[in-house]
Amino acid sequence: MAIEGADIVKAAACLGASLAMGLGALGPGIGEGMAAAKACEAIGKNPKEAGLLTRTMLVGQAVTESTGIYSLVIALLLLFVV
Amino acid sequence: MAIEGADIVKAAACLGASLAMGLGALGPGIGEGMAAAKACEAIGKNPKEAGLLTRTMLVGQAVTESTGIYSLVIALLLLFVV
Amino acid sequence: MAIEGADIVKAAACLGASLAMGLGALGPGIGEGMAAAKACEAIGKNPKEAGLLTRTMLVGQAVTESTGIYSLVIALLLLFVV
Amino acid sequence: MAIEGADIVKAAACLGASLAMGLGALGPGIGEGMAAAKACEAIGKNPKEAGLLTRTMLVGQAVTESTGIYSLVIALLLLFVV
Amino acid sequence: MAIEGADIVKAAACLGASLAMGLGALGPGIGEGMAAAKACEAIGKNPKEAGLLTRTMLVGQAVTESTGIYSLVIALLLLFVV
Amino acid sequence: MAIEGADIVKAAACLGASLAMGLGALGPGIGEGMAAAKACEAIGKNPKEAGLLTRTMLVGQAVTESTGIYSLVIALLLLFVV
Amino acid sequence: MAIEGADIVKAAACLGASLAMGLGALGPGIGEGMAAAKACEAIGKNPKEAGLLTRTMLVGQAVTESTGIYSLVIALLLLFVV
Amino acid sequence: MAIEGADIVKAAACLGASLAMGLGALGPGIGEGMAAAKACEAIGKNPKEAGLLTRTMLVGQAVTESTGIYSLVIALLLLFVV
Amino acid sequence: MAIEGADIVKAAACLGASLAMGLGALGPGIGEGMAAAKACEAIGKNPKEAGLLTRTMLVGQAVTESTGIYSLVIALLLLFVV
Amino acid sequence: MAIEGADIVKAAACLGASLAMGLGALGPGIGEGMAAAKACEAIGKNPKEAGLLTRTMLVGQAVTESTGIYSLVIALLLLFVV
Amino acid sequence: MAIEGADIVKAAACLGASLAMGLGALGPGIGEGMAAAKACEAIGKNPKEAGLLTRTMLVGQAVTESTGIYSLVIALLLLFVV
Amino acid sequence: MAIEGADIVKAAACLGASLAMGLGALGPGIGEGMAAAKACEAIGKNPKEAGLLTRTMLVGQAVTESTGIYSLVIALLLLFVV
Amino acid sequence: MAIEGADIVKAAACLGASLAMGLGALGPGIGEGMAAAKACEAIGKNPKEAGLLTRTMLVGQAVTESTGIYSLVIALLLLFVV
Amino acid sequence: MAIEGADIVKAAACLGASLAMGLGALGPGIGEGMAAAKACEAIGKNPKEAGLLTRTMLVGQAVTESTGIYSLVIALLLLFVV
């Protein structure tokens, strides 16, 4: 049983990285899907504004993506820095 | 079993950072996605107000983002300060 | 196994800070997103009142944000004061 | 292992404060968001009554906020009094 | 390990107070938010009855608040009496 | 470790009181909120019957409250009688 | 550690009473709230039948209440008979 | 530690009785509430058939109640027979 | 600690009986409530077919009840045969 | 502590039988309830096809029942064969 | 404590068989119920195509059933082959 | 206590196979049921295209089935190869 | 108790493979089912575009499938490479 | 019991990889399915814009996919780098 404290910290960091990324992908994944769904619906009704709608969708998704990227950053920090 | 108290604290901080960020990305991710979805729908119906609607969407998402950023701050504090 | 009581308290404070902030970001995140979504919908239908609607959205979101800020306060107290 | 009973109580108080505030922010956060969303919708339809509607929204949110404030009180009591 | 029975009881009371208040704020928080949302919607449609509607909303919320207050009472009893 | 059986029972009673009240406030809180929401909606449409509707809302909420009061009774019994 | 079997049984009965009542208040609380909500809606549309509707609501709620009362009975049996 | 096997069985029976009744009250409570809600709605639209509708509601609720009663039977058997 | 294997089996059977009945009452309880709700709605719209609709509701509920009865059978077998 | 391996297996089989039946009754219970609800609704609108609709409901429920019966089979196998 | 490895494996297989079947009956049970509900609705509107609709319902349910049958196969393998 | 490592691995594989198949049957079961429900609805409205719709439903279900089959493959690998 | 570290790793890999595949089949299973349901609905309304709609459904499902395939890859890596 | 720290870390990495991928596939799987569903609906109504809509769906799904890919990256890093 040659278990040392650093191993416990490392194991916690591994589990933590997966929880941060796994849970952090859940919200943006659902949210961005809703944005994409409504954008398709809107373009189907008003195809002349497709460029405008695609741009709005991408801007809205980019902001939504931000919390997913924060999760990625925390997960990478947990794996390589801590 | 050379485990010391500081290791337990560090392991708890690693798990805590991941939970704070993972759960903290869930709410804003879904909320911002709803805002982006409704903005696309509104622009599809009233494309002349696209600039106004994009601005409103971004302001609304920025406020929503705030709780996600609080989570990021707590996660970073847990990793580097505590 | 040089674990002392203060370490247990510190570890509990770390986990607690993350739970307070993670769960506390969930509710306001979803709630503020609903407010932003409906504000976009309303501005799309009645763009002349955009200023009034943005102001109402921000006031409503500010009150909603309050519970998120309480959570941030509790999390910071757990990290630095306790 | 110099753990004493007071440490166990302190650790339980730390975890308790976070659970009280984290869960206690969930309900009011969602509820106040619904109120803000409907207020925006109503003002968009009837902008002449904006003052009346904002006041009603704020009164309704203030009552909803009360359970969030109870949670804050319990959390602060757990941190500083118990 | 100078842990005595009174410490266990105290720790359970701390956790219990937080669970009682945290869970007890969830239901009334969502319920009162629904009441506030519908009151805003109703006033937007029929602003002449704003006083009547605000009064009804407050009465309905007051009854809903009661279970939240019971939770507060139980939490305070757990902290200071037990 | 001077823990006796009576302490275990007391600790279980503390946790039990909080669970009984916390969970018991969830259902009536949501249910009474729905009743209040619909009463506001109905009064907005038919303000002449406000007295009748408020009375019906209060009667309906009173019955709904009953399970919340049962929970309060069980919680108080757990704290002071058991 | 003077823990005896009767203490374990008593502690389980305390936790059991709280779970029975807490969970048992959840379903009827939501169900009766739905009944009260729909009764208000119906009276708002057809106020002449208010007496009939209030009676129906009360009968329906009384049956719904029954499972809540069963839970109360089980909880009281757990506290005082077992 | 004078714990015997019969105590373990008794404790499991206590917890079991509460889970059986608590969970068993959840489903019928929600289901019967839906039936009562729809019966009120139907009587509000068609008050001449109030007797018929009340009877149908009661028959439907009685069948729904049956699973709640099964749960009560199992809970009582766990408390007094096992 | 005079715990024997038969006690462990008996305790597991007690917990199992409660889980089987508690969870097994959840699904049919909600399902039969939906059937009763729709039957009331249909009779309110078409009261001349009340007999036919009540019969259909009862047949549909009887089939739904079957899984609840299977659960009861398993629970009774766990209590008295195993 | 005269616990043998066969007792562990028996206890696991008891818990397993209850989980298989309890969870296995949840899905079909809700699903068959939906079928019965829609059948009542359809017969209310088109009572001349009541026989056809009742037959379709029963066929559909019978197929849905099948997974419930598989669960019953697994539960009985766990109790009497394993 | 004559517990051997084969007993642990057997106990895990028993619990596993119940989880596989219990969870595996949940999805198809709800899904097939939705199919049966919509088939009844469709036949009520268009009774001339009852044969075609019943066939489609059965084909759709048969495919849905497949994952339930996979679960049954895994459960039986766990009980009798492993 | 003649438990060896291979037994632990085997027990984990048994539990794993059941979780993989149980959870893996949940998603496709609900998804395929939605497809079958909508196909019945569409055929009821447009019975002339029944062949086309049945084919589309089967193709869509086949793709949905794929993740269920992946789960079956993983479960069988866990039982017989690992 | 001849348990070695490699056995713990292997057991974790077995459980991990099942969780990855089980959870990973849940999201795509529901998502692809929604796509298939809407494709059937659309073909029923506009059967002339059946080829186009089937192609769109398959492309959309293929992208959705990708996260399910990632899960399969991770599960296979856990079983055979790690 | 020749378990060393590196084994604990490896086991945590295996479990972590599966949780990251399993949870990370849930959100995008549901979100992309919503996008595909709405794209099919829109193409059915406006088949002339099929190319535009397919492109929008793919762009929206690609952004949604990103959080799923982050999860895959974290899972692969956990398996092969950590």
UniProtKB/TrEMBL annotation, chains A, B, C, D, E, F, G, H, I, J, K, L, M, N:
> Please, which domain of life does this record's source organism belong to?
Bacteria
Q: Where are the transmembrane segments?
A: 63-81
* Keyword Ion transport attributed: yes
What InterPro entries does this protein map onto? ATP_synth_csu_bac/chlpt, ATP_synth_F0_csu, ATPase_proteolipid_c-like_dom, F/V-ATP_Csub_sf
Membrane-topology annotation of the record: Multi-pass membrane protein
> Where is this chain's protein located in or outside the cell?
Cell membrane
Q: Where is this site: Reversibly protonated during proton transport?
A: 65
Keywords carried by this UniProt record: ATP synthesis, Cell membrane, CF(0), Hydrogen ion transport, Ion transport, Lipid-binding, Membrane, Transmembrane, Transmembrane helix, Transport
One CC-aspect GO term? proton-transporting two-sector ATPase complex, proton-transporting domain
Question: GO: which molecular function terms?
Answer: lipid binding; proton-transporting ATP synthase activity, rotational mechanism
Please indicate if the UniProt record lists Oxidoreductase as a keyword.
no
Its main localization is membrane
Domain (V-ATPase proteolipid subunit C-like): residue spans on this chain? 15-78
Instruction: Write out the similarity annotation.
Output: Belongs to the ATPase C chain family.
Q: What does this protein do?
A: Key component of the F(0) channel; it plays a direct role in translocation across the membrane. A homomeric c-ring of between 10-14 subunits forms the central stalk rotor element with the F(1) delta and epsilon subunits.
Know the name of this protein? ATP synthase subunit c
What broad taxonomic lineage does this protein's source fall under?
Answer: Bacteria, Pseudomonadati, Thermodesulfobacteriota, Desulfobacteria, Desulfobacterales
Name the encoding gene, please: atpE2
